[in-house]
């Protein structure tokens, strides 16, 4: 889903939540949960958009109306070779699309 598609769905109230997935290597991707589908934020060429930080995500999403927005971090131990599978849910922290103090931007 492109940013313009995401904006249109958000303005129509069709976004259930946005999950900013923290990945190994220090980058993030946006997992979009719409009421009719689930998708990832992509650029105009169809490649998954890699975001640099939660701040970068807020900047990219600055024109969206307020929707539920979460930072999701999976345990690094779940990815270790030979480790027993874990049933722990990932850490899901609520975020705001806007900074608490907009004067600092």
UniProtKB/TrEMBL annotation:
Pfam families on file:
DUF6482
- The superkingdom listed in its UniProt entry is Bacteria
Can you name this protein?
Cation transport ATPase
